[in-house]
Amino acid sequence: xxxxxxxxxxxxxxxxxxxxxxxxxxxxxxxxxxxxxxxxxxxxxxxxxxxxxxxxxxxxxxxxxxxxxxxxxxxxxxxxxxxxxxxxxxxxxxxxxxxxxxxxxxxxxxxxxxxxxxxxxxxxxxxxxxxxxxxxxxxxxxxxxxxxxxxxxxxxxxxxxxxxxxxxxxxxxxxxxxxxxx
Length: 182
Known about the structure:
This protein is mainly α. The protein has helices at 3-11, 15-37, 40-56, 68-87, 90-93, 109-113, 117-125, 129-139, 145-152, 156-181. It has 10 helices and no strands. Helix 2 crosses helix 3 (40-56).
């Protein structure tokens, strides 16, 4: 079914359309939740919560062309996960990685290209929750530090620092992987 028609039928409460929407987008939405949640069980719970929010708020969706439905759904999922993280005070409980420097040597871009995406996503999922959340918002959602700080209820400098430490930790993991797999 075409995206616009599917969205309209979901807006009207058509359960067959909702089922189709879920079956078509669940994998992608789970991957969005996994990026932030870090573990599959939590990500699945958050994805289901996100779909419930989607179904309840289709009246807020505005069709803006092909891909706008998926983009809106991803925003809802990210907001669902962020709400969960704030509620559980994850940003203030985040453990810091030992000996992660503020300065680091960024791996060569061509070297990173040989690492499978699944491995890179695993490295991201292994970051402490605070680092992972800031990294995802900055890299995948293209949010500036000011907005990240507002979304997470943290200081803007803390956002920048957590991003730097996340990048440093990832750079270390990439270099180690390259040594073992090159």
